[in-house]
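Journal club side-thread
Mid-discussion, someone asked how the predicted structure for our own chain would compare to the paper's figures. Pasting it here so we can look after the session.
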Amino acid sequence: MNFLLNKLNELGLIRTFGKNYQFKIGNKTNLPAEIIVAACLEYASRVNYGGNTINISSLLYNEGSPGMAFKLTENVLCEAIETVAKRFDALVFSDTAGIIQLTFKDEIIANHEKSMAKEKAKALEEILDQEDNNLPCLVCHL
């Protein structure tokens, strides 16, 4: 438990007050904009079902969203997206008539999904390499 609390504290996600803990809401100095945007794209790829636009309120308040996971404010999330979108043409941050959205080209999600598939395959390979051949298969018994 202490390991987890220490990691959350290092990331700036929680504050400790003696024996009490509190989520830190807003800006996290140890959380780069690129990580926030990567989390937004990961989330969008799971919930958007082929769409290429997601509104900021979904990224902030929906269950499992980066805003909820990292306890971000709208300003912090928007700043992170704007910062990264300035460097990549495949991302567009827009605020039209009060509707704030992140739009991304299809290739961004396709590239992200390919990268994640490679990482998952690599992790599975590492698990299987560590497996004791005298015991039942870990994959078959998950």
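Post-session note: The mean pLDDT is 82.
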